[in-house]
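User: Batch of two.

Assistant: Item 1 of 2:
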Amino acid sequence: MRLLKLCLALFAASAIAETSVWEVSDGERRLYIGGTMHLLSAADYPLPKAYGEAYRAAHTLVFEADVGQMSSPYWVGQMQNAIMLPAGQRLSDQLAPATWAAIEGYLATIGIPAASIQGLSPAGFVTVISVIALKNAGLEEIGIDSFYMEKAQAANKQTLFLEGIQEQLDFIAHMGEGQEDALILSTLDDISSIDELLQPMVDAWRDGDMQALDELGAAPMREDFPALYKMILVDRNRRWLPDLIALLATDPVEFVLVGALHLAGPDGVLRALQAQGYQVRQLP
């Protein structure tokens, strides 16, 4: 479930659970980092208390990008451009016949005419069909980043962003280049077992189980789509690290909210901060 997991996270319960919120400090100054999921179900609210504690302690909230702007007409148009083929081209012509047949078969099961998606690029199709599958599985509520963006704006808290919306659209537009057929077939295969795969990821996120998150979400991507893994996770984590260190050098407390998969595994932000000598403490 490579892209499906990325859409959630872009994300072994215990008797005393941890959470996906960490305090990072240098002994004098601190910030909080929380892992987010971009779509949730109603049952996922209220969020674990550690999120509220970090929010109340923070002067500034830091997001991946300005999710509030993404619904503006301009950026909706830019998103459409990012996932569409040039005029006159068709998705079926970009793929192997077997891949297109698999797409037609799946769309028939959910009542979507294949002709209606012919203008999508391969990456655009994967993006759209993943979001549809997640919403059909019950993930219809706004995610943690949107939830806290609204709270921060209502409370007049300062907001900062680690990257621009155009950067995120560029990731989508170039996703899976050179492996389009494999990415589509893998996504369709994972959608077929979405009900069994989603709950373990949600449980791992809620319990702050980074090892489980890495095994469920990041490790399959590392193995099957290493270029996608590098572009979506590794490269962005490395670009964010100097910004996080700069935030740690200031007195105000920040609460940084990024997709939970950015915090997990050997290339995660938390491990990078520990390697720089910062203290990282998981909140219970």
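Item 2 of 2:
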Amino acid sequence: MCLAIPGKITEIIENPPALRIAKVSFSGVIKDICIEWLPEVKINDYVLAHAGTALTIVDPEEARLTLETFRQWAESLEDEDLK
């Protein structure tokens, strides 16, 4: 099973002829993600990323709801571990 996580683009690195890379914040954790396949992406866009590659641009509200769901899942798992 694969899981794509939404993240916010904070910086775009143009370094031809190399692939286009962006700094992407995943709830404060910054990762370098390939954005080569999304030429229209810009700073402050949210993208779904998997295995170091941005797959698609995501609506900001949808990204927020997804991240909130992940946070709730993590909290429920922590609660289970405490039992």
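The beta strands are 5-13, 21-26, 29-34, 46-50, 53-58.
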